[in-house]
Amino acid sequence: MVSALFAQVKKGEEIAVPYIAYPIKMGKGFNAVQANCLTCHSFGYIINQGPQSKDFWAGKVVKMVVHFKAPIDKKDTQTIIDYLFKHYGNGKLK
Ligand code: HEC
To answer: Does residue 14 register a pLDDT over 50?
Structure first.
């Protein structure tokens, strides 16, 4: 879907970026977050936590699955953790 949209934008043409309340960082993994994490709460709710360690994010993903029965695709788990840590991490593993 996204690629089809982008394909329609001609080279050199300016793209108007819609205002969003939270700075969503696009990039590898965002699709996985969108598919797995935004069914129950918003993106802002997730990144409201501020910069956190990799363990913190991994723990949250596990918590979502264990406590809230989030139907998170196993193959996406690591992608999501990496994405959150890369963009919303504090640089610390633990
Ligand atoms: C099945 C529904 C559901 C899905 C899917 C889900 N969450 Fe949550 N999430 C919740 C609920 C419920 C809360 C807690 C609300 C509360 O405690 O008031 C929550 C809270 C959070 C919090 C706030 C901190 C905390 O510990 O409560 C974070 C961060 C979070 N989710 C991240 C994620 C991430 C990342 C994903 C995707 C991997 C995800 N969630 C997918 C239901 C879900």
So the answer is: yes
Q: Which of 40, 72, 82 to mutate to test the pocket of ligand 1 (most atoms within 8 A of CB)?
A: 40
b/e code 24-44 from CB counts within 10 Å (16+ = b): eeeeebbbbbeebbeeeeebe
- How many residues appear in the chain? 94
The minimum-distance atom of ligand 1 relative to the CA of 84 is: 35
**pLDDT average, residue stretch 82-89:** 94
Cα distance between residue 7 and residue 16, in whole Å: 15
Tell me, rounded to whole angstroms, the distance of Cα 4 from its chain centroid: 21
